[in-house]
């Protein structure tokens, strides 16, 4: 496939030290789908769904060990439309690498979760299932700056979410400055909502007019009330699956040859039309997600890029702004726990190998300490993991020690080396 890559994309790969041979494995990768509402299903129901999917696909279909609900379809060319389970809403297309990023958050029932870059919605749907509780439901807030993409999320939620759609709200907003806090604790209690409206009529009016930009673009009635939208609580979990160049998504890269044209791949890699470098945008998304995370909470930063500039150097810049008394990069449970059963192999992070590289990338003696702090982050390389490429970092907010970092400081490590 890489024989067709335009010069701009080849230059991008060289600059980022990405071996073009990674794209040779594309045809040999399986296709992945996820069983919706997996935990609510009986073992016999799951087995029937697996057998039906295997029949429809005409090839081997197996459950992915250690990553609940995911199925591996041996033939990558299988289309979702030919699967009965997809038509019925029981299956959704989702690479298992994205599932691992979601599982890294360790969402518990009742958690308030923020998905700061939520489109096209597969991760959002899984987060909603994990946050759902029959007694005191949590909530999932999805944000995307494109109305078209947020509409795709809405369609997916309507088709697949079932009862969990009742805890999802969507905002068409810029994730770098999104400021709406988590819903109030009893947002789902109609009695509490009614009492609040009677006691705070001014807030109710304001929520319908002057602060309409803080109202959800899509939400169930109780999640769009003035009561739900006027809280000050921070989120228990935040996912920043940041916008990136998608060079680690081999399926995405293949679409340039099949649909969009290889010349468009060159424009994407070069950042043509962007107002700021991708790593700077990612750094701002990460910083805003962190601001909205409660002390003790967990944030996952992930990309489907293999670029060090979009992964380790963004994370390193973040850690340089937040000391080890504020932020701790923790092991990813599926890779760290011996009893997880996960058979997908992750690789260590990239780090400079020579003294020259250490100096070239930025902070001198401080740099080694930063890379030591991020050692528990992980890379999924298609040649090893048999999945799409992915970078995943799980970060714990140790305390509420925000320094109020100004915008001009929100940059990745070694930004000068990217210009």
UniProtKB/TrEMBL annotation:
> Which residues does the annotation say bind S-adenosyl-L-methionine?
144, 174, 241
- A single GO molecular function term of this UniProt record: RNA methyltransferase activity
Q: Is S-adenosyl-L-methionine found in the keyword set?
A: yes
Q: Show the Gene3D superfamilies listed in the entry.
A: Vaccinia Virus protein VP39
Its organism's taxonomic lineage begins at:
Eukaryota, Fungi, Fungi incertae sedis, Zoopagomycota, Kickxellomycotina
Q: State whether keyword Transferase applies.
A: yes
Family note:
Belongs to the class I-like SAM-binding methyltransferase superfamily. RsmB/NOP family.
Q: Which UniProt keywords apply?
A: Methyltransferase, RNA-binding, S-adenosyl-L-methionine, Transferase
Give every SAM-dependent MTase RsmB/NOP-type domain span.
Answer: 21-398
Q: Where is the active site?
A: 304 (nucleophile)
Please cite one Gene Ontology biological process associated with this protein. Answer: RNA methylation
Q: Which organism is it from?
A: Coemansia guatemalensis
Source species, domain of life:
Eukaryota
Mind telling me what this protein is named? SAM-dependent MTase RsmB/NOP-type domain-containing protein
> Which InterPro entries does the annotation name?
MeTrfase_RsmB-F_NOP2_cat, MeTrfase_RsmB-F_NOP2_dom, RCMT, RCMT_subfamily_9, SAM-dependent_MTases_sf
